[in-house]
Amino acid sequence: MKKKLIIAGTAVVAVTLLTGFGFGGRGGHHGSPDPERIKQMVTWKLDDKLDDLDATEAQRSSIHAVKDRLLAEGQQLMEGQQAVRTEALAQLESPTPDAAKLHALVDSRIDAFRAFAHKATDAVLEMHRTLTPAQRQELASEYRERTGQK
């Protein structure tokens, strides 16, 4: 069952990556997302949480550096989408699309997103090391309450 879910999820991701649905491409509701607006929203949410945790200035500085680095890398990842969309469209408009090229596009984007997901995980671990045990426990408790986990 788990394998079927992974395969189905991968198929959805492949279509999304090639067409741009859900990532602010032509299939998005409002065009490309504004990187400054995204940064502003993430910063606001992060500052709110750091206020709740009574984070020190050193913690804030360290965590914001991680956030800025991750947002910059995420922006680069999304900029790579335009070339993929253009190539996918060219292939799909062709009377004989090159299946190998389309599969290669999917593979390259999945690899890029996988690499970014690993960087995001490393960023979370870096932030984790910045927080005190009490702050980490507070975050874990809030997460359990929000998700209904015990």
TL;DR of this structure?
The protein has helices at residues 2-19, 35-52, 57-93, 99-130, 133-147. It is mainly α and 150 residues long.
Features:
150 residues; mainly alpha
Secondary-structure element order, as H and E? HHHHH
Number of strands: 0
Structural class assignment? mainly alpha
Tell me the number of helical segments per DSSP (H or I, 4 or more residues long): 5
Low-confidence stretches: 19-29
Mean pLDDT across residues: 84
How many domains, in number, for the residues? 1
Ends: how far apart? 25 Å
Question: How is the main sheet built?
Answer: none
Question: In percent, how helical is the residue content?
Answer: over 70%
Query: How much beta, percentage-wise?
Result: under 5%
Task: Return Rg in Å.
Answer: 19 Å
- Cα shape: elongated
Walk me through what this model shows.
The chain has 150 residues and is mostly helical. It has one domain. 80% of the residues lie in helices and 0% in strands. The protein is built from five helices and no strands. Helix 2 (35-52) packs antiparallel against helix 3 (57-93). Residues 19-29 have low confidence and may be disordered.
How would the blueprint of this fold be written?
Elements: H1 2-19, H2 35-52, H3 57-93, H4 99-130, H5 133-147
